[in-house]
Amino acid sequence: MRDRRPLPTSPGFWRSPVRGSWFTSVLGLVLLAGITVLFVTGLLSYAAYNPNLSPVNDQTPGKGLLGFYLFAWPTHPHWLYRLTQGVHVTLGITLIPVLLAKLWSVVPRLFALPPVRSVTHALERLSLLLLVGGGLFEFTTGVLNIQLDYVFPGSFYPLHFYGAWVFFAAFVAHAALKTPAAVRTVRRMRAGGEEEGDLVAPRPAPPTVSRRGALWLVGGGSLLLFVTSAGRSFDGLLRQTALLTPHGGAEPGSGPGGFQVNKTAAYAGITPAETRADTWRLTVTGRTGTVRLTRADLERMALHSAALPIACVEGWSTSDQWWRGVRLRDLAALVGHGDPPDVLVESLQAHGAFRRAALRADQVGDPRSLLALYVNGEDLTPDHGHPARVIVPAAPGVLNTKWVARLTFGELR
Amino acid sequence: MNRRPPRTPGTPGDARTPGLRRLPLGSPLHLLLLACSFALAAYAGVRLLAGDWLGVALWFVGAALLHDLVLLPLYSAADRAVVRAAGAVGRREWALYVRVPAALSVLLLLVWFPLISGMVDQSYRLAAGLSADGFLARWLLITAVLFGGSALLFLLRLRRAAKERPPAVH
Question: What is the residue extent of each domain of chain B?
Fold first, then answer.
């Protein structure tokens, strides 16, 4: 015989002996630290695109005050974006079990009666909708985007950026309201205190796992996601360990050009007819006019080397590759800019959000910023941007334009 | 802190018309904090909703509802079924040996579903020049290792228990 089960609105409905303020507090404090890092690295990634430099870099022209902190993204250290974006995505993936466990731990409060106890409480519950909806929205769009599953309602950049601000607004309020109590709970329990509060089941089912054991399971989930993801920020054996993550596992090819590719030539619609020695020309425009260069012309200019990674907004990156080509500032000088200005780079690519990208003067002026013709001692492969591509230290992958057709110095539209 | 304000039975009118009781305001400091939070959320929110506002709103609210009212009850029910099955043989704590590998495996499936299910095979191959074939196999392999490891631990535990128990006792 089944005894009459209480409704979810009754505290007696919730039977798990794991629920309680300690479990929730520990998870909450982990998320407080983790989501703060996610938000900061997310804002850094947004700044790394230099959205204020030119409309072609800006996926969110209506950002208004939300871009208040923007700054000129530096070129030092050259692994900066590789680090910040690797942390952003890998940490986000790692925090998924913590987020899910945190939501599980407080679900009785969703149904608690009375639904509204005061005006403040009503507003707090509305704020929780933004917190939970926003958190899940941010994690979901992020996880889908790195798997190239663009099913969300709009372009990823504005959704993830504005969604982050909505989520963060609710997150700050929630953290301010709850953190003091969470810290007190953890301290009290460490001193040997008893579990208390509204989350403790009034008639718990017999335990099958301790609270600490449940926390180990959450940590185990995080660890499993971490070890099957983190390797995609490195080449070689480490990448092999990223078993379930996009751009983890195997390299797309072998040899000098065998490292990871964001968008292949086929995907970008680049045909060999456009990139042949007799058809491809680089158009460089500046103060003194326009120069058209063949690939052979470029090869006759002073060639320089730089060891730089490719770091994608999707969180994967390669180790440093050895690029060789013409310095961007030498190309600027060729058209009358002794002092390197900003540049607009245009690709042969006919479609795609970043077929045109702007680079700031400090990026153009860096001696490691190249229009690369070779990588790892060989000609660029078609997928890596043959006949010529931009490579700039610390810049997000999409600003390292491939299949470059035109450079316009000093004019960004 | 989830401080419940004390019920105020002495309030006039409370006993007669509980439904029409005037809603107390609550802490003014909290109110101020929430007002600031909503102002920022609204500022970003109008930008978030500038495009396909219905789609975005559905995703935003739908994510919370889908999680709280579908995903969570589903996995709770599955977990209860496992515990009940273990309870049927009188050993509820044995549920852990199914629960842990199953939870980890489902977690991986949930996060990497587009790749594992093969939904994005074509775009992944075309964009990244990589094969998406291996994801399902690798997930199954990881799942097999998780359950295999759990079974091994379970057998070891049974053996240890059998050794410690005197043979006469049943």
Answer: 51-164
- Residue numbers in A near B2 (CB within 8 A): 109, 197-198
Residue B167, pLDDT score: 61
d(CA B74, CA A180): 33
- Give residue B157's pLDDT: 92
| Spatial CB neighbours of B132, under 8 Å, sequence gap ≥ 6 | B115, B118, B120, B121, B124, B125
CA–CA distances in Å: residue A282 to residues A263, A327, A346: 21, 14, 10
User: Quick check: B60 and A163 CB within 8 A?
Assistant: yes
Question: How far is C-alpha B131 from the chain's CA centre?
Answer: 31
Q: Distances from the Cα of B85 to the Cαs of A93, A99, B92, B93, B99, in angstroms? A: 32, 28, 8, 11, 12
Measured CA to CA in angstroms, residue A68 lies from A46, A58, A64, A71 at distances of 12, 14, 8, 9
Best of B33, B58, B76, B138 to substitute, by most chain A Cβ atoms within 10 angstroms, is: B33
**Cβ atoms within 10 Å of A193's Cβ, excluding its own:** 12
Domains (range + CATH), chain A: 11-227 (no CATH), 265-409 (3.90.420.10)
**Which of B83, B111, B121, B124 is the best substitution to test chain A (most A C-beta atoms within 10 A)?**
B111
* Residue A221: count of CB within 10 angstroms of its CB: 23
Within 8 A of A250 by CB-CB distance, chain B residues are: 130-131
Percent of chain B with pLDDT over 90: 70
Task: Kindly state the DSSP code that residue B68 receives in the 8-state scheme.
Answer: I
Whether the Cβ atoms of residue A22 and residue A195 lie closer than 8 Å to each other: yes
Q: Rounded distance, CA A376 to CA A21, Å?
A: 55
| A140-180 pLDDT tens trace | 999 999 999 999 999 999 999 999 999 999 999 999 999 99
| N-terminal to C-terminal alpha carbon distance within chain A | 76
Q: A166, A130 in Cβ contact below 8 A?
A: yes
How many Cα atoms are found within 13 Å in the side-chain-facing hemisphere of A4?
3
A138: confidence class by pLDDT, cuts 50, 70, 90: very high
Contact A372/A324 with Cβ under 8 angstroms?
A: yes
**pLDDT above 50: residue B7:** no
Residue A162 to residue B44, Cβ atoms within 8 A: yes
| Crossing angle for the helix pair A119-146 and B28-48, to the nearest 10 degrees | 40
pLDDT of res. B16: 44
Cis peptide before A387 (omega within 30 of 0): yes
User: Counting every residue, how long is chain A?
Assistant: 413
Helical H segments across A347-401, by residue range: 361-365
**pLDDT range class, residue A410, cuts 50, 70, 90:** very high
Residues 17-36 of chain B with CB under 8 A from chain A are: 23-27, 30-31, 33-36
* Residue A375, helix vs strand vs coil: strand
